[in-house]
Amino acid sequence: MKVAIYCRLSEEDRNKQFETDDSNSIQNQKAMLLQYAVEQGWELYNIYSDDDYTGSDRRRPEFNRLLNDAEHHKFDIILCKTQSRFTRELELVEKYIHGLFPIWGIRFISIVDNADTANKGNKKSRQINGLVNEWYLEDMSENIRSVLTNRRENGFHIGAFALYGYKKDPDQKGHLIIDEEAAAVVREVFTLFSQGYGKTAIARMLNDRGIPNPTEYKRLHGLRYQQPKMKNSTLWKYFAISDMLANEIYIGNMVQGKYGSISYKTKQNKPRPKSEWFIVEGTHEPIIDRELWNRVQSLIDQRAKPFTIGTIGLFARKARCANCGYIMRSSKNRGKHYLQCSNRHVAKDACIGSFISVDKLEQLVIDEINRLSAEYLDKDELEQNIEFCDNLQGQKKRLISDMAAYEKKIAEYSKGIRELYMDKVKGLISESDYMEMSKNFTADRDRLERVIADGEKQLSEIEEKIAAGDNRRELIEQYTNLEHLNREIVETLIDYISIGKRIPGTRDVPVEIHWNF
After folding, report:
1. With bands split at pLDDT 50, 70 and 90, how would you rate the model's confidence at 230?
2. Alpha-carbon distance 57 to 87, whole Å?
3. How far apart are CA 390 and CA 213, in angstroms?
4. Which of 51, 72, 320, 448 has minimal CB crowding within 10 Å?
5. Distance, C-alpha 205 to centroid of its chain
């Protein structure tokens, strides 16, 4: 029998001296599990180890590699110290330990809490472990949220990275001190803007002088920083200048909580309204004095354009540079409107500089819409309808399969509730434990019943579409023989447009349209 050992560092016993080291926790887990495997006479296939990851993090690299190898049956047994080291989520316990592992022929064992899928008699104990771990996750999340909220309300900095121009105070946790080298650049940016220089012009001036942008500055000085997602990440950009000029942290106010997590089960964040931000005044030494700050804010207000219906550009946020992927900005010259790459002015050779007039792009889009509509309407409608229905039939099949899986899970929850009741009658569990556990089983069952109800509605809608046939023809017919575009048409039909640089010796500009249909 081949065994795969899985280890994970728990948050409460992180004790590494260096990031590349295994923690003592990981070392102890490996030693314990290796000894157990040897005693059982199993052959070691591999050790999968996730250090510095929580039990609720589904993106653990070794965890996902383990699951992939399990699916391909590269081993027979998964061995852990406890079930919680594998996962703290009840949903994943049910999905893998009780669902997919038996299908894949994988036995799951955790030593300390005596979980073993080969022993059908302890399934309820594994489910109880899953419930307890789920409650632990939720309670821990609430406790952490409460502590962080309190620290934010009291003006302590709790972020992983200090804002450019500041660094974390080594003598006082949660306090920021000025980083003079970077602060000098911040003061220059505010001063230049107050003297009438535009944001793009300021970015170009900094780039021409070889001043690294905030991310590159932190990397060069060995400070913690967030990995950039875009190309040309060492250059200053318009938006970096824009964000800097509006950040109150530079006048000594602590501003936090602009983003909040969606759930304790995911690391995804979403923006919060300004009314929910935590703003505490005078928490640290300002880089920008009030007089300069007020002058800059006044200039920003004067330059701001009203965002109302009728002022939005025809291709606003739809046109992208084919070279660097940045959103193209609009400009006006001699009464004509143009789109140009926002990167072309920030530094020399930052981008090839995609450029096109709005009129030309509009005509190109109209020509393509008319070509597509004529081509589509000339095709055999029956053939198109068959292809369309095949796609819907696939959606229907997947939905029915998912609903069947949910119904099976509901039956398991109902059976679990009945078994818990019998355990209570036999005196194996207390009344309070029975009430608590059955309450959670019932809640999960009710949730799945609502999911099935929603699925039935979706199924009904799909069947109606199949009966009605393909409506793409009707959509295209609305936009046949167009002479001009409007914002509604662009929003409806176009996902985005990729625009290249004019082909030398011609007036042609490479344009690639990505449609919504």
Report:
1. low
2. 8
3. 51
4. 72
5. 34
- The distance from CA 250 to its chain's CA centroid, rounded to whole angstroms, is 28
Q: Which of 279, 273, 267, 199 is nearest to 239 (CA)?
A: 199
With CA atoms as reference, report the closest residue to 86 among 40, 54, 124.
54
Tokens (6 digits) for 165? 């121009």
Q: What is the DSSP code (8-state) at residue 58?
A: T
Model confidence over 185-222: pLDDT tens digits? 999 999 988 887 888 889 888 988 889 999 888 888 88
**Which two three-digit tokens encode residue 41?**
């006479």
Phi then psi for residue 3, to 5 deg, are -120, 140
Q: What CA–CA distance (Å, rounded) separates 244 from 237? A: 11
* Rounded-to-integer distance, Cα 478 and Cα 134, Å: 52
Q: Is 210 left (phi over 0), alpha (psi -120 to 50) or beta?
A: left
Long-range Cβ pairs for the range 146-153 (8 Å, 24+)? 149/278, 152/254, 152/256, 152/257, 152/278, 152/280, 153/278, 153/280
Query: Which tokens go with 279?
Result: 């703003």
Q: Tokens 């003061």 appear where? A: 187
Residue carrying the six token digits 């002088």: 209
